[in-house]
Write a structure and sequence with these properties.
alpha/beta; two-stranded antiparallel sheet; Glutaredoxin; 5-stranded mixed beta sheet; 3 domains; 14 helices; globular; 345 residues
Length: 345
């Protein structure tokens, strides 16, 4: 009886509540089979698999946590998606990732040298918030500021909680975290990157406009039409709303170029729970947009040359000013003029 009760508690903690499962009309039989599997799993050690450390241990834990009665997986040459969320259309999710991968390659072709992708990207989409936090080593509640997704830096793993993005776009989160992964795996940073470039690039790709035919338009900002959740609460206009929020904050002086570009300590930049953290992401995104496309593309070559130095570990933070020939004040003035004509699709 104790084992049965323990299995039932474990089931509730796993986020796999019986009433939410829609795989079969025979709920009693499904519950019985799942309980049997939980009892079998109780016989296995809860600790990390023997002999595994670091990312290997995290990968093994993710593989174990994601496999429940709603488990689904799908793979391509570049990614393997695994989920415990029955609301995820893994075919569409994989198509989104593969389309972004192709666009990432096309975007940097002729701009920067891309290395080969040595490993398949591993993407875990958790319906269970308990599992998501357990994997990441914390026990935060949904109200404590846990982001909807994480790329585990230095690995080939992206982890997301599928319900944290309700209304704000799991698709956006997926592209954002996949960009972090591709920067690490294809651009191969050999030094610490400025947080504003790391998050700015991920947010830039997150909000590149994708039209109804699936074509990406690098200089245009907007949402994408694909939906990877079968029942989606996605609200269009995320890119437009974030652009508008940044414009207001920038005009009021709530966020400045220097406070973001020179924040090379991650603690300065991220500040979990701070109302200004989204504005820092947006500053990175829109500053990159200005340096690539503003003033007729006059700054793109200098910025990309600087970015190469960051990747090589030869520059960071305020080194940007000398590289592009503008101090913080001049960059701010250029960005302000650029923003006046910038709209979201």
């Amino acid at each position: 009886m104790r084992a049965l009760l323990a299995a039932f508690v474990l089931l509730l903690l796993s986020g796999g509540a019986f009433a939410q499962d829609q795989q079969t009309d025979d709920h009693a039989e499904q519950d019985r089979r799942y309980l049997e599997r939980l009892l079998q799993e109780q016989k296995k050690a809860e600790e990390q698999p023997e002999g595994l450390t670091g990312f290997d241990a995290l990968l093994a834990m993710a593989e174990k946590l994601v496999k429940d009665q709603n488990y689904d997986t799908r793979s391509s040459d570049h990614y393997r998606i695994q989920t415990d969320d029955p609301n995820i259309n893994t075919r569409k999710a994989l198509a989104l990732l593969d389309g972004h991968h192709a666009f990432f390659e096309k975007f940097f072709a002729g701009r920067l040298e891309l290395g080969a992708q040595a490993e398949v990207g591993r993407v875990f989409l958790f319906d269970s918030f308990h599992k998501y936090n357990k994997l990441l080593g914390t026990d935060l509640s949904r109200s404590d500021g846990r982001p909807a997704g994480h790329y585990l830096g230095g690995s080939n793993m992206c982890v997301m909680h599928t319900r944290s993005g309700d209304g704000t776009g799991l698709e956006d989160t997926l592209v954002h975290e996949a960009t972090h992964l591709l920067v690490d795996m294809r651009l191969n940073p050999r030094g610490a990157m400025s947080p504003w470039i790391s998050e700015g690039l991920a947010t830039f790709f997150q909000y590149v406009h994708q039209d109804d035919e699936g074509t990406f338009h690098p200089s245009r900002i907007g949402d994408r039409s694909v939906r990877i959740q079968r029942e989606s609460n996605y609200r269009r206009g995320n890119a437009r709303n974030r652009l508008s929020a940044f414009k207001r904050a920038f005009r009021k002086g709530d966020v400045t170029v220097s406070s973001v570009v020179e924040a090379i300590d991650p603690g300065q930049f991220y500040q979990l729970g701070s109302a200004q953290t989204p504005r820092r992401y947006e500053m990175g995104w829109l500053l990159i947009h200005y340096l690539l496309f503003g003033d007729g593309g006059a700054h793109a070559g200098k910025f990309l040359a600087y970015f190469e130095k960051e990747l090589a570990g030869e520059a960071i933070g305020a080194d940007l000013y000398d590289a592009v020939g503008m101090d913080a004040e001049a960059l701010g003035a250029g960005l302000e003029a650029h923003l006046k004509g910038l709209k979201a699709e």
